[in-house]
């Protein structure tokens, strides 16, 4: 087997795949020229030709035993796009909406979840996740309280026990979690 003596081959591979994943999707494919321009913008000290990009995409798809990065030819250009198989845009938006409508999460936690879900999609869809928060809700912004409550609930469900939580603001409100 012939050994590749290019010391930057691994960096090239990661850079090309990362650019395709972050900047494309089924509706927004990118060309070889777009990939080369992104590499230049990121100030990498190497250039890539179309044959190498094609080989990297084949290796990446072969590793996942599936077509994760698609390719098609239109005219003289090859177009590459990332096929996101985890969530579609509406499922992800529904999750973000649920997190933002919940009083259970702190503002910091909400922003963290939004950012993590945004990173699952290309830059073309990240605007779908911009939210205006209703900051009139007064609540505890301590993350440790949130995680302690979550751990207590999870433990109760696992042990099939009943958990009772009382709130300070509404003395008559009692939250009961009972697992099956």
Report what the structure shows:
The chain has 180 residues and is of the alpha+beta class. The protein has 6 helices and 5 strands. It has helices spanning 9-23, 32-41, 50-63, 89-101, 107-118, 143-159, and strands spanning 30-31, 69-74, 77-82, 163-166, 174-177. The protein has a 3-stranded antiparallel beta sheet. The protein has a two-stranded antiparallel sheet with strand order 4-5. A hairpin with a 7-residue loop joins strand 4 (163-166) and strand 5 (174-177). The longest helix has 17 residues, at 143-159. It comes from Allocoprobacillus halotolerans.
Summarize the structure.
With 180 residues, this protein is of the alpha+beta class. Helix content is 45%, strand content 12%. It has a three-stranded antiparallel β-sheet with strand order 1-3-2. Strands 4-5 form a two-stranded antiparallel sheet.
Give structural attributes:
about 180 residues, Arc Repressor Mutant, subunit A, two-stranded antiparallel sheet
The biggest beta sheet is recorded as:
3 strands, antiparallel
Identify the quaternary structure here. Answer: single chain
Low-confidence stretches: 132-138
The named CATH superfamily of the largest domain: Winged helix-like DNA-binding domain superfamily/Winged helix DNA-binding domain
Protein name: WYL domain-containing protein
Organism: Allocoprobacillus halotolerans
Indicate the topology.
Blueprint: H1 9-23, E1 30-31, H2 32-41, H3 50-63, E2 69-74, E3 77-82, H4 89-101, H5 107-118, H6 143-159, E4 163-166, E5 174-177
Antiparallel strand pairs: 1-3, 2-3, 4-5
Protein name: WYL domain-containing protein
Organism: Allocoprobacillus halotolerans
């Amino acid at each position: 087997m012939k050994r590749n003596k290019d010391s930057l081959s691994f960096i090239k591979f990661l850079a090309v795949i990362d650019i395709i994943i972050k900047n494309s999707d089924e509706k927004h494919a990118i060309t070889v020229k777009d990939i080369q321009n992104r590499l230049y913008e990121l100030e990498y000290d190497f250039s890539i030709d179309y044959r190498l990009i094609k080989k990297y995409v084949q290796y990446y798809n072969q590793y996942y035993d599936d077509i994760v990065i698609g390719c098609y030819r239109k005219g003289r250009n090859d177009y590459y796009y990332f096929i996101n198989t985890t969530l579609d845009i509406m499922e992800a938006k529904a999750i973000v909406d649920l997190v933002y409508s919940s009083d259970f999460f702190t503002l910091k936690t909400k922003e963290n979840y939004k950012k993590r879900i945004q990173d699952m999609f290309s830059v073309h869809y990240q605007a779908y996740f911009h939210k205006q928060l209703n900051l009139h809700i007064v609540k505890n912004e301590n993350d440790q309280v949130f995680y302690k409550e979550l751990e207590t609930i999870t433990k109760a469900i696992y042990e099939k026990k009943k958990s009772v939580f009382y709130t300070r603001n509404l003395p008559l409100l009692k939250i009961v979690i009972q697992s099956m």
